[in-house]
Amino acid sequence: MNEPNSNKNIGRLLLDAGKLKLPDIELIEYCQKEQGLRFGEAAVKLGLVDEADILQILAQQFDYPYLQPGEEGFSEELVAAYHPFSSQVEAFRSLRSQLTLRWFNEEHKQLALVGVGSGEDCSLLAANLAIVFSQLGQRTVLVDANLRNNPTQHRLFNLPQSAGLSEVLNGRIGIEAIRKIPAFVDLSVLTAGTLPPNPQELLGRPGFRLLMRDLAKNYDATLLVTPNGLLYADTQNIVAETGAALLVVHRNHTRIKDARAVQAQILNAKAQILGVVINEF
Question: What is the pLDDT, as a whole number, of residue 4?
């Protein structure tokens, strides 16, 4: 009896991944035939693999990359990388859909995420959002434009603290500072680099505008992490170039007057506010 091609592919991928051996395949096929199960169901029922193994193989078949816990050394906070079928990541995908409908197209390819009162909030949101954009097959670059204190993208993605955005804006290095993330074919990250003494002036120079133009040519989606929008005016330089911002507030923490103050800064920079995300992450 011939197997469907999908079963053959799953079996071959599990073999290649070292999850199964040839005798296991024969046993699974027999179980399939006797109990009318699909290949993955039979393999799990026999205890030869678990549900996580099958989900990862299916993700490979449908070109939907994600990682097993601990793989690549990324932060566990990148739930979109390690737990793509969780309700939390479903919320990220829903946000991606809204942004795609409302903003991202051939004209609009760049978006700033602006945190009110905490840069940490938008850093985690941006990182996970960048992963789900890349899983859609969008060429995505995540730029850590928090040149103030505690930029986090290098830590989240297990990247060295080497040349990054500040060095690009200083003219010391070009866009080769952007690092591809091999685990996600369509994802790249530009870390903050060395924290400069004059971040607002750096972001106000023509070099930042030229960089943004280069990114618009080479990527379908550019997401920028900004510093605390309440404390620093850097955000105005950033949103003036992206043309749009997503405001990130924290439930039971962000004060309404603070959110309105940051909103006013964004509007003064003649940028749109696409929406407000209440972050419980």
Answer: 41
Q: Are 215 and 110 in contact (CB under 8 A)?
A: yes
Residue from 33, 72, 25 nearest 49 by CA: 25
Longest dimension (CA), the chain: 71
Per-run averaged pLDDT (10 residues), the chain, 281 residues: 51 84 88 87 88 72 77 93 91 95 95 81 92 94 93 95 94 95 94 95 95 97 92 90 94 88 93 90 56
Record the pTM.
0.83
Residue with structure tokens 């505690």? 150
Residue 123 tokens, joined: 């850093």
CATH topology assigned to domain 71-279: Rossmann fold (3.40.50)
Measured on CA atoms in the order 98, 102, 108, 114, is the torsion positive or negative? Answer: negative
Residue 41 Cα distances to 10, 54, 120, angstroms: 11, 9, 41
Pairing of strands 179-180, 187-190: antiparallel
Do 124 and 155 touch, CB atoms closer than 8 A?
no
Strands 272-279, 187-190: parallel, antiparallel or unpaired by DSSP? Answer: unpaired
